[in-house]
Design brief:
This protein is α+β, with helices and mostly antiparallel strands and 657 residues long. The strands form five sheets. Strands 1-2-21-20-12-18 form a six-stranded mixed beta sheet. The chain has a five-stranded parallel beta sheet with strand order 7-4-3-11-19. 36% of the residues lie in helices and 15% in strands. Helix 1 packs across helix 5 and helix 4 packs across helix 5. The protein binds flavin-adenine dinucleotide. Flavin-adenine dinucleotide binds next to helix 3, helix 6, strand 8, helix 7 and strand 17.
Length: 657
């Protein structure tokens, strides 16, 4: 990485400062198919006896964290693992429904490592780093073997091979699944591996402990400040390296398909300590979610993308047509995805399907309350396959839909609408998954990773497990080979400062004693983000959002009401700290979206579209990763660009037509 250097301010309204370009320097300069092997070979090893002298903190025990903790524990390192739930099994990963990709080519339908690599780069709208994506595709094959060996009950065909289905943006079947509960089954696999290491005492598990600060000593990540969420005790923990596997930040939008607890605090605190935050504005809006039903909702529900294998999406041709969907004849229906994108049909990538749904609703052809919905119809599939087959594939999703909406999807089409689902942005990492702070590694959804401007379905589980089981355990050795590093204890000035900062913040939140609840602020922030930094962004809207977010942040710190005290289980206090960080993140997301005056993947700028309304990229100006450096309290952030070079995939305007 080149050294940071402020050059000049570019933006007319001075929202940011431009710093020097950066680059990944860890991917070996050999042909792409040999890079990972070469990196593993060149990375120094640590002999088993020395591993016992080295320690690693892992924050997060979802798929990315649990797999890393289990693997590093098994390798013999001393691992301390933290999560804020009462069990690693409650991580948000458990919610993943549809499946996990791997280039096994069991279907013999033309899949390969190269095709998965190609699909992912193209699906991400040419905004991901080639080396990392190629490695992800390579490692995908090993993940399935590892999980099968753990006993993960993937669906099988009658002949015994693992079954596959298709997800959006691809024309092969490479998604492995366990009904609609793939995340749960994979997490149980990772959890049992983790439990084994806990029993073997290589991993010390701390549940209900929330990381509130990173401790950086002599430029290296050396520890964390943690709040015991039951007693309010503030603790420090130290290690030779720190790994953040803390998931995504979609809840900045308040309403999303993420678990309500998902937040940005761990990565944001690391960002404030020097870790660059990459592509914060890249958010995935998932096309098939149950529409918002009212003001009092705190969460949205996903209907897995796998449903698009057999369900057909449509709206009435006329906005005036308010008949029961079953009474609307074929010629009065518009299967708009099949019409506009005949080669991919209902399986276009998520960003495209979401925008198309928004467009038909904006035209006044949406269905259901408020006209914010489109039909996902299984009538054809029921006629073709029969109810038992549909039930076997999607039964749990159908019953979830029925429970939430009170409608029977076997009888009448589901109503769906796009919702915030995943964040492609996250902490910037190099090929080794190391952040811009030495000794800080970031895995899973928490890093900016391999998905560019749009993640393909079933690729998050693949990436989280690739990072945790295979990539990190190989690359972190190279760093730890220089350890153990000088011992740090709680009296070290860096630790004392970090603890004081945590206490001061908690005291401040508890002492404002204002009139508004944390949730009311969060809701208002979320609405701003959705309206101006959601499915469609414009220069004018983003500037408006930035002004209002800054005002709202001030109001938060002068008028929020957090009841109770620190020395107890205090969920209002937990939420207040997270929302405070969401304000800062929201601001950076809008600045990032403002600077990127192109449309790409999930980032659709109204000013940059083709005549037929498709996203228009600008590769000359924007073929880079935006890596933001924290500029200081109330100071402008600094933008470092990592230019993206495509040697193996030709950059072209995406087409799914
Ligand atoms: C409804 C839904 C369905 C999905 N289905 C699929 C699918 O079918 N296929 C697919 O590939 N992807 C799917 N995804 C995406 C995928 O589930 C996630 O991207 C992935 O599980 C994230 O895993 P993770 O380990 O990175 O983070 P998480 O599972 O979110 O884990 C984060 C961990 O970090 C801990 N943590 C966070 N902050 C702190 C802190 N400050 N202190 C201490 N601990 C902290 C948490 O306690 C938790 O243990 C789905 C997502 C949703 C919302």
């Amino acid at each position: 990485m080149t050294n940071f250097e402020v050059t000049h301010s570019l933006d007319a309204n001075s929202f940011y400062i431009e710093g020097a370009d950066i680059a990944d320097t860890k991917a070996p300069q050999v042909p792409i198919e040999r890079r990972w092997e070469e990196r593993r070979f060149r990375a120094r090893l640590v002999n088993p006896a020395n591993r016992r002298k080295l320690s690693v903190i892992i924050v997060g025990s979802g798929l990315a964290g649990a797999s890393a903790a289990a693997t590093l524990g098994e390798a013999g390192y001393n691992v301390a693992c933290f999560c804020y739930q009462d069990s690693p099994r409650r991580a948000h990963s458990i919610a993943a429904q549809g499946g996990i990709n791997a280039a096994k080519n069991y279907r013999n339908d033309g899949d390969s490592v190269y095709r998965l690599f190609y699909d992912t780069v193209k699906g991400g709208d040419f905004r991901a780093r080639e080396s990392n994506v190629y490695r992800l595709a390579e490692v995908s094959v090993e993940i399935i073997d590892q999980c099968v060996a753990q006993g993960v009950p993937f669906a099988r065909e009658y002949g015994g091979l693992l079954d596959n289905r298709s997800f959006g943006g691809v024309q092969v079947s490479r998604t492995f699944y366990a009904r609609g509960q793939t995340g749960q089954q994979l997490l149980i696999g990772a959890y049992q591996a983790l439990e084994r290491q806990i029993a073997a005492e290589t991993v010390e598990m701390h549940t209900r402990h929330e990381m509130l600060e990173l401790i950086v000593v002599d430029g290296r990540a050396r520890g964390v400040v943690i709040r015991d969420m039951v007693t309010g005790g503030i603790e420090t923990h130290f290690a030779d390296a720190v790994v953040l596997a803390t998931g995504g930040y979609g809840n900045v939008f308040y309403l999303s398909t993420n678990a309500v607890g998902c937040n940005v605090t761990a990565t944001w605190r690391a960002h404030r300590k020097g870790a660059y935050f990459a592509n914060p504005c890249y958010t995935q809006i998932h096309p098939t979610c149950i529409p918002v039903s009212g003001e009092h909702q705190s969460k949205l529900t996903l209907m897995s993308e796998s449903l698009r294998n057999d369900g057909r999406i449509w709206v009435p041709k006329s906005g005036e047509d308010k008949r029961d969907p079953r009474e609307i004849s074929e010629q009065d229906r518009d299967y708009y995805l099949e019409r506009i994108y005949p080669s991919f049909g209902n399986l276009v990538p998520r960003d495209i399907a979401s925008r198309a749904a928004k467009n038909v609703c904006d035209e006044g052809r949406g269905v259901g309350p408020g006209g914010l919905g489109v039909y996902l119809d299984f009538a054809d599939a029921m006629a073709r396959l029969g109810r038992p087959a549909v039930e076997a594939k999607y039964g749990n999703l159908f019953s979830m839909y029925a429970q939430i909406t009170g409608e029977d999807p076997y009888q009448t089409p589901m109503r769906i609408y796009p919702a915030v689902h995943y964040t492609m942005g996250g902490l910037w990492v190099d090929y080794d998954l190391e952040a811009s702070i030495p000794g800080l590694y970031v895995t899973g959804e928490a890093n900016f990773s391999d998905h560019g401007a749009n993640r393909l379905g079933a690729s998050a589980l693949m990436q989280g497990l690739a990072d945790g089981y295979f990539v990190l355990p190989s690359t972190i050795n190279d760093y730890l080979a220089d350890g153990p590093f000088p011992k740090v204890d709680p009296s070290h000035p860096a630790a004392v400062d970090a603890v004081e900062a945590v206490r001061a913040r908690i005291d401040k939140l508890l002492s404002v004693n204002g009139s508004r609840t944390v949730d009311s602020f969060h809701k208002e922030l979320g609405r701003l983000m959705w309206d101006y930094c959601g499915m469609e962004r414009s220069e004018e809207g983003l500037r408006k959002a930035l002004t209002r977010i800054r005002e709202l942040k001030k109001e938060f710190w002068s008028d929020v009401r957090v009841l109770g005290m620190n020395e107890e289980l205090n969920q209002a206090l937990e939420r207040a700290g997270r929302v405070a960080d969401f304000f800062e993140l929201g601001e950076l997301m809008c600045i990032d979206a403002l600077v990127r005056r192109e449309s790409c993947g999930g980032h659709f700028r109204v000013e940059s579209q083709t005549p037929d309304g498709e996203a228009l990229r600008d590769d000359d100006e924007f073929a880079y990763v935006s890596a933001w450096e924290f500029g200081g309290e109330d100071r402008r952030p600094i933008l470092h660009k990592e230019p993206l070079l495509y040697e193996y995939v030709e950059m072209k305007q995406r087409s799914y037509k």
